[in-house]
């Protein structure tokens, strides 16, 4: 498998606090990778550095061989890296369809001509909310808002999708259908990196897991192995994995 | 994606109103009425620019009169120094105001959040000071005279009736231009920024560039409005473009409501004619404007017309769940 | 545009009787003294602006009009035969009450949206200016100098009224400073400036502190107004220029930073003094705007570091 995103020696300090201390991480073409770790382990900082919200203190992020360290958020997405936020987000005052239209209009169309969902409507059908197309996004129930967020990220025609706690706030049924959607992505040429601390979700989704603790990577490997790694067990306090 | 039936629906009422207004001279209105109507119309042109900036993008300029001033001074200087008349002044002044908007906008939008509004205010003031201290060239505090008439096909069309029709024509163009922007994918991009900047950046929108773009676009409208002002008043001075006129423009756009195409038209007419209708002197009417601005911000953040429409639909029981009538003003700087 | 009459009358600058144009050093010293006395008034505004911003995120541009109202009340009282000290107290009280009323009636509804607070304050400028004009016309107003003694020390003529203004400002600012740094109310206030929500969670009645700060800031503006009219004639438009300077000072000092405001007030006073001394007085208003823009651009937290206002969602 080819590496599409390569992170080397990524450090991020906020004043005296080290949020990331030299993390190496590789995402391969066509995989669904999970990044887990307890709260404060640096997951979200990692996400923010890759998506251009924060500039790293040191280290590089290479995307398909190109250095994209510290470039602004909007150019990250134009390079083919889509992402969703921990807090479900949309443009509340615009209709659901308009939301997706906007995202479609700003995708780097040249990048992916063969995209599986060419129109805004086809995206809404894929995530399962075509009936809400005419509604204002601001009145959507939380579950639908998450799905809309996913559609927005997809509409930018990414080759890699970063999902920050995509199932937070969803009930079991909604989580299951989300997992069903995400599992289809690799077949459509979209690699996925999920950041979450929900081990159940990770077990369902990911073949490979990376565990962060205090800003460092403490495990990296097939999900089943990582879950039995004593270091990981210790971090989760012998938790019920 | 410009023309769909539903988007035309917002334009038609505006065109009907403007067509009716174009018939007003047939009723033999007084000169006083025509003058007021012309002032209102000139403001409305700038308001259509503000509606793109404020209504669509959600950022407010409290120094917009300064951009009108750039247009007006451009026209006056072109006429005085280069013997260039009305029609050629229009594009030049539009471009000049756009350039100044970019010069103000590029640094201003770098500063975070609601400081932008203060920056526009400060730049507006600074421009007034520069014009006042400009010596002979800008005519200092007493300003400049406009010596050239407005001509069309070689004949002078400067009398009030003709000028009124000219202004109506420009208002119509502004309304259509504003409508075209609102209903284009560009307008949608601006709305996305208004609704959620972070998400807009996440889906690949260059937020900073589009905000500056919207400010520049609104500058073009302001510049054109300034040319008409210079040719109408025949004399311009820095005080006309200081903070009060900017507050006045902001009041108009807020009273009318910036998101509806009818808003600038309604706001401009209401604010211009209200003192006349209530028979107020200038001091009283300014107090009223100030009170209205405060009241609108506190009670009708989406504008009077949208407020009335809301009230109406609530009255009719047709109100859907309205979880998000996010306040228009709030987003001005966030 | 119907804004036919000029709104911003330039703040009136009268040539002071105590100025003597002989010997550059003397003039310089005198200009600096003059600059400092004006800077005192500006600092009084800046302290109000900075405290209100620090706590609420609202930039109250009408604060200059608060000052102007203070001048007007002082003028009215003196014109009706009261002595200057009584008139000054009345001015302070009147503006403090006005601040209380406006905060309760208007500004508290804009706490969640500071931009709205700013726009509302612009509306208030128009209202306050023109209400004053409506009742007392737009002409210049002045009172006889409360102190007329002019000391002459080594060729430098020092007007006692200026010294009074400077000393009163120092006293009031020191009192405010001690109150904010030493008393438990001050501690709670600073905690609220740091983080409004956490302070509220700790049981600090933040809303009441906001009202309190509005009243305090207004009282300082009222004092500034009373002192200003002791120095210069004023017009209903004086507030506009003064607030820009006060705001520039607050910004340069770092919004929310009291010490910074005082230091920046000194700087602007001296710069303006020099500038007037060397004949650039028509540009003095531009300094504050220009400085403000530059500071916003390059040091948005001010030269001495300030808060960026309460954290907004």
> Going across the major beta sheet of chain A, what is the strand order?
6-7-8-3-9-10
Number of helices of chain B: 14
The CATH architecture of the largest domain in chain A:
3-Layer(aba) Sandwich
Low-pLDDT runs of 5+ residues of chain A are none
The number of distinct helices of chain A, counting runs of at least 4 residues, comes to: 9
Summarize the helix and strand pattern of chain B as letters: HHHHHHEEEHHHHEHHHH
The average pLDDT of chain A is: 81
Tell me the domain tally of chain A.
Answer: 2
**Assembly state:** heterotrimer
Work out the helicity level of chain B. Answer: over 70%
Q: What's the helix-strand series of chain A? A: EEEHEEHEHHHEHEHEEHH
Count of the separate structural domains of chain B: 1
User: Which two protein chains have the largest interface (Cβ within 8 Å of the partner's Cβ), and how many residues from each?
Assistant: B-C, 63 and 48 residues
Name the CATH homologous superfamily of the largest domain in chain A: P-loop containing nucleotide triphosphate hydrolases
- The Cα radius of gyration of chain A reads 17 Å
Strand order of the largest sheet of chain B: 1-4
The major sheet of chain A is characterized as: 6 strands, mixed
| Rg from Cα of chain B | 19 Å
Q: Helices, strands, pairings?
A:
The complex is a heterotrimer of chains A (241), B (334) and C (313).
Chain A: E1 3-14, E2 17-28, E3 32-36, H1 43-50, E4 58-63, E5 66-67, H2 73-78, E6 81-84, H3 96-105, H4 120-127, H5 142-155, E7 160-164, H6 172-184, E8 191-195, H7 199-205, E9 208-213, E10 216-222, H8 223-227, H9 230-235
Parallel strand pairs in A: 3-8, 3-9, 6-7, 7-8
Antiparallel strand pairs in A: 1-2, 1-4, 4-5, 9-10
Helix pairs in contact in A: 3-4, 3-5, 4-5
Chain B: H1 5-22, H2 31-56, H3 64-82, H4 86-108, H5 115-132, H6 135-138, E1 144-145, E2 151-152, E3 155-156, H7 160-182, H8 185-195, H9 197-202, H10 207-233, E4 235-236, H11 243-256, H12 262-278, H13 282-299, H14 304-315
Antiparallel strand pairs in B: 1-4, 2-3
Helix pairs in contact in B: 1-7, 2-7, 2-10, 2-11, 2-12, 3-4, 3-5, 3-10, 4-10, 11-12, 11-13
Chain C: H1 24-56, H2 63-79, H3 84-105, H4 114-136, E1 150-153, E2 156-159, H5 160-182, H6 184-194, H7 196-201, H8 206-231, H9 238-253, H10 258-277, H11 284-298
